[in-house]
Amino acid sequence: MQRISRRSAASAILVIAACAAVLEACGSRRSASATTTTIRIAGTPHQDTTLYMWGIQRGFFQKHNIELDVRDTTFNDQIDLVAGNGCDLAMATVDEIAAKSKNLDLANRRVLYVMPAWLFEGQIFVSRPDLPSLSELKKHHPSEEAAKLFFRQIRGRKIAVPEGSSYDQAIRRLMKSAGIDPADYAFINSELEAGINGLSHSNVALAAAGIVERPEAERRGYTVALDSLDLNMIVIAGFISSAPFYKNHRTAVDEFLLTWFESVEDALAHPQDNYRVFSAYLSRRGGNPPTFDEYQRALRYTIFSRDPSDVYNTFLRPDSPSYWRKPWDGRLRQLRESGQGDQATPTTADFIADEVVARLMRHGQ
């Protein structure tokens, strides 16, 4: 039998070790020597949308060769910013993409819904305290009659709400369910960040408010006129990307999403420190940060998915209460009912989360 020399054995061991290292690198997150990808990401002043900033502070994204370039904007401008190549990744609700998908595709400015990431349950409309809320009216009247009474008391006054937003859809849907024509009411297009300022004018009856605006509204003495249960809102927020960026940087998008989960998990485990990151960003933009207690209270209305499997079970399973098709189809139905059926997309091709999440769930296997 031929003997193997010590030198040959040592060489074989080195070859095996090298092969093992290559195989390990192929099955893991990107190696430290990989090229860094810069992603321009939208920055908006909300507790939920800023959690990736904690990951920037902690070096999570840099560790995976992602450099984030934050581009300040407002929540409702993010789709147009991505479509216009002002940034690469941003956040939006499922229903907003459903409403704009067809027109963006026709204009060759395709925006993809990459992954739903959290469920928001804090949507409200606020008013001055002298206006009885719908919840109060429901204590004394059947639901439909209470809704009619509620809207009757604001007839002739204005409703401040971001045009075309999930808030706009929800209040119009509530009106229609009570047999009320939204066309009989005056809506003024107002960003969430500024909407509650309109309540200082007597001709404005209601203003949409989110998780940042709600604490400020309460500080000013305003009250909840319509809550999420009144509005029957399923608001799913997540990440969008321009089609060209996703096509050319699919691996980087995957890395960002996987690191997003890491950032969320760690940020929520360090609430005080994460609050300071959020407050610093809000202050830099000229905003008035809420107190820590208000910040924590606002986050209670947000349910974050913690990993790809959680995303699948929460948003992609057809039997889930928060299945993504519900707000998508609801928005298309609203377009058709309002005479804008020509804007309703006939396809869900721009919602690619099933493909993305399936790939993320296989990652490292």
Topology:
Blueprint: H1 6-27, E1 37-43, H2 51-58, H3 60-63, E2 66-72, H4 78-83, E3 89-93, H5 94-106, E4 111-120, E5 124-127, H6 134-138, H7 143-152, E6 158-161, H8 166-177, E7 186-189, H9 192-195, E8 204-209, H10 213-219, E9 223-226, H11 228-231, E10 235-242, H12 243-248, H13 250-269, H14 271-284, H15 292-299, E11 302-304, H16 308-316, H17 325-337, H18 353-362
Parallel strand pairs: 1-2, 6-7, 6-8
Antiparallel strand pairs: 3-10, 4-10, 4-11, 5-8, 5-9
Helix pairs in contact: 2-13, 5-17, 16-18
Describe the structure.
By secondary structure, the protein is α/β, with parallel strands linked by helices. Helices cover 48% and strands 17% of the residues. It is built from 18 helices and eleven strands. A five-stranded mixed sheet has the order 7-6-8-5-9. Strand 6 (158-161), helix 8 and strand 7 (186-189) form a beta-alpha-beta unit. Helix 16 runs antiparallel to helix 18 (353-362). The radius of gyration is 24 Å and the shape is globular. Mean pLDDT is 88; it is low at 1-28.
Q: What's the quick description here?
A:
By secondary structure, the protein is α/β, with parallel strands linked by helices. Helix content is 48%, strand content 17%. Helix 2 packs across helix 13.
Keywords:
365 residues, alpha/beta, 5-stranded mixed sheet, 4-stranded antiparallel sheet, 18 helices, 11 strands, 48% helix, 17% strand, globular, disordered N terminus
Strand content: 15-25%
Question: What letter string, H or E per element, gives the SSE order?
Answer: HEHHEHEHEEHHEHEHEHEHEHHHHEHHH
> Would you tell me the structural class of the helices and strands?
alpha/beta
Topology, number of strands:
11
Helix content: 40-55%
Strand order of the largest sheet: 7-6-8-5-9
Number of helices: 18
Distance from N terminus to C terminus (CA atoms, Å) equals 41 Å
Q: What's the alpha carbon Rg, rounded to whole Å?
A: 24 Å
Which of globular, elongated, flat, extended, rod-shaped describes the shape? globular
| Major beta-sheet overview | 5 strands, mixed
